[in-house]
């Protein structure tokens, strides 16, 4: 797993493109794992603070219970000009200093998480060449690019 900064260091162009996609809109889609193993999708906002991609939740949300039980998740940026997704393990920030560093209320009742990344994907279309372009990054493995008609 890797921090957002690790991603930026290993694949700066892809990290910048993925970040731009997330910053275009405020709300995105968070996928968590329900107790029975099925997926749950919820709206979520993300932010970039220091070395981390962080996101939060209101108190008592189902997604918080999901993440506390099994931190594996994925966040899909609001789709418009290309498709960006990140996945990894959510780590809840409970220490007031960590919460403040992530831009959350240090003593608030809301929940704050950082994402330890296991993958990032950017999908785009080259209209001129009629190609679907999929760029995939995994920590320590570089960027793999697939082009399909």
Automatic annotation (TrEMBL):
Q: Which domain of life is it from?
A: Bacteria
List the molecular function annotations (GO) for this entry. Answer: coenzyme F420 binding; oxidoreductase activity, acting on the CH-CH group of donors
Sorted UniProt keywords = Oxidoreductase
Q: Which SUPFAM superfamilies match?
A: FMN-binding split barrel (SSF50475)
**Which cellular component terms (GO) are annotated to the entry?**
cytosol
**Residue ranges constituting the Pyridoxamine 5'-phosphate oxidase N-terminal domain according to the UniProt record:** 16-111
Name of the molecule in the record: Pyridoxamine 5'-phosphate oxidase family protein
Q: Which organism is it from?
A: Nocardia colli
Q: What is the lineage of its organism?
A: Bacteria, Bacillati, Actinomycetota, Actinomycetes, Mycobacteriales
